[in-house]
Amino acid sequence: MKNSENVTRRIISTVIAVATVVVAGVGTMPQASADPLSTSSLDTSQVQGAAFNDPDCKSEFNPVIFIHGTSTTNKDWKNASNYLAERGYCTWAINYGAEPGRISYGWADLDQSAAEIAAGINNILARTGAEKVSLIGHSQGGMMIKRFIEEPGANNDAKVDRVVTFGASFGGTDVNGMRWLRGLFNSWPEFWKLMAGAAAFQQVVGDAGESSQIARVKSLPDTSPGIIYTAVYSPRDTTVTDTTSTHPVYGKNLPSTLQGEPGWVVNVDADQECGYSALLAHAQFPYSAEPIQLMEWGITRTPEMTTPVCGTQSSDSSPTVSSSL
């Protein structure tokens, strides 16, 4: 009897360990930092060495706002913000979704985070005096952009010019086929919210269904007229997936794509179009040199421009223009 109890405990411990690690990966793994979290969950303070959140920045272009993913911070956008700043852009990067005891952001309940992000975007519009912004999001951040724009009655679509997303969780994720996780989470919801964080818990879908938050996002229109969308994904992404998808083009990456008017909406296979085979799929999208060129293309292209302009890795690890320019 005692041996049976020990085996049961080991099985439960293993399931907890595996599920917690896997679900934490819905964004990126937590980034260790010597800096304390902002006392406010929503944070647009400046970061040393990063061009974003400069209140004195002036530009002829619309402000560019970066929205990070689960279990990370706005520091992921440091390279991208510096690159765009060199080209005349004013950039902003919001920290949102703090939870007590976490060393990073993007963990909180999706409804709470959506409200924080909306407040942050509106605050930046007010501070800059801009009529529109361009939004760039990764993982949960991409999904939050869709939610912001399509919020019923908010008229937020009139505030956005262009959208660029990387590995966005528009449709949640089955975490590369671990569809049993949703059922496990439904069994002990409060425990798993504590262990994995509400945001990760809520983004997981599976055979036992999906959270009300993801169901709500999926019920919203993918896009709004007048906004130019660029959604980037990688077939090697094992974090945001739908392994039951039979879509002939996007396959398991369907949750990271958008449907809409051709040209106004372009879905980019980063591996096929840009040869990003050296990238660690999903986690490195925000800060790697190669995708930064795609960000610039996405916030400058017109509906007639549907061939991606891809960046290449240079010897000094800074973004460079590829031969496709």
Automatic annotation (TrEMBL):
Transmembrane segments: none annotated. InterPro entries: AB_hydrolase_fold (IPR029058), Lipase_EstA/Esterase_EstB (IPR002918). Residues 306-325 are annotated as: Disordered. Keywords: Hydrolase. GO terms for molecular function: lipase activity. Pfam families: Lipase_2 (PF01674). GO terms for biological process: lipid catabolic process. Residues 314-325 have a biased composition (Low complexity). This is Alpha/beta hydrolase family protein. It comes from Corynebacterium cystitidis DSM 20524.
